[in-house]
Design goal:
By secondary structure, this protein is of the alpha+beta class. The protein is about 40% helix and about 30% strand. About 30% of the residues are buried.
Length: about 300
């Protein structure tokens, strides 16, 4: 008599499946109809989501609006930058509320988790530069969150639209750049994805003292010219990203870093080109002014 894995009790199989990562769970669901049914269990995906994003613990309203399996399918892969445009999607309706689930890790160990609810319907929000702070500088987390090595930090920033039940992860997971603030001397660890020609950049600021301590975690968006994108423009980008395709694969963090570096390089090139044009215009204006003055002086001398 041949014994198969499906001969095990269902509760034992369910416990085993909950220990798998998402790719392994999806692969197991393709093996047999029985495993497919067990792999579709909402509690299995809920456990997977809580293991991946500790910030979701206790967020019953959020997980009710967005089923765990859909949340994982939306937020675990990277959004496709090529498929995201700046136009409004979903019949022109933009989210009226955003919920950010933010998790900071070091070496796979969660260091800090926050959930930030952002009302997104006011005229002030729509017209102002988009910025969300998971940890504000004036209200540092208590107790202080120590960081062994800022360069080894990882970040997940999942943005959820509860009304639509869709989500997108706007972090590169691994840092795309680590530098110092020119004035405060803080270490700035940057995580970024480029969507629709704009850059979503999450920054973890670490102040120095007795080691490194997280002092701020924030998300902002800027366009190709380096200007801050408004709340309304960001909502359009997020809506398109949520509805667009996703990209998987272990090389996506490196691809996100490559896109970030290309974005920065092009922005620098545009600034230099603009500076050259402005210098040329200034030179032409100065030359024209000199000609006018010389003409006036010559006319006065010839009288």
């Amino acid at each position: 008599m041949v014994t198969t894995i499906e001969d095990l009790p269902a509760d034992v199989l369910a416990r085993a499946l909950r220990r798998l990562d998402a790719r392994s769970l999806a692969a197991a669901s393709c093996a047999t109809a029985g495993l497919r049914a067990l792999a579709a269990d909402p509690e299995t995906w809920r456990a997977l989501c809580l293991a991946e994003w500790p910030s979701l613990a206790g967020q019953t309203r959020l997980l009710a609006a967005l089923p765990p399996r859909r949340l994982f399918a939306d937020a675990f892969p990277f959004p496709s930058a090529d498929a995201v445009g700046g136009g409004e999607e979903g019949g022109g309706r933009l989210p009226r509320e955003l919920v950010s689930a933010v998790d900071v890790y070091c070496g796979g160990t969660p260091l800090l988790s926050r959930v930030v609810e952002t009302p997104a319907s006011s005229s002030w929000f729509l017209g102002s530069p988009f910025r969300v702070e998971a940890v504000e500088r004036k209200t540092k987390p208590a107790p202080a969150v120590a960081v062994p090595s800022p360069a080894e930090l990882e970040l997940s920033w999942v943005v959820v639209d509860p009304a639509r039940g869709r989500a997108v992860n706007v972090s590169s997971r691994r840092a795309v750049a680590v530098d110092r603030h020119w004035y405060t001397g803080e270490t700035l660890v940057r995580f970024a994805v480029v969507l629709g020609g704009s850059k979503f950049e999450a920054t973890v600021a670490c102040s120095e003292g007795a080691g490194h301590v997280i002092s701020e975690v924030s998300l902002a968006v800027e366009d190709a010219d380096g200007a801050a994108v408004s709340g309304q423009g960001t909502l359009r980008l997020l809506t398109a990203a949520m509805e667009g395709p996703r990209r998987g694969g272990g090389s996506e963090p490196e691809e996100a870093k490559r896109r970030y570096e290309e974005f920065v390089r092009r922005k620098k090139g545009r600034k230099e080109s603009k500076a050259r044009r402005e210098a040329l215009v200034d030179l032409c204006c100065s030359a024209a002014s000199a000609v006018v003055v010389l003409t006036f002086l010559a006319a006065v001398a010839l009288r």
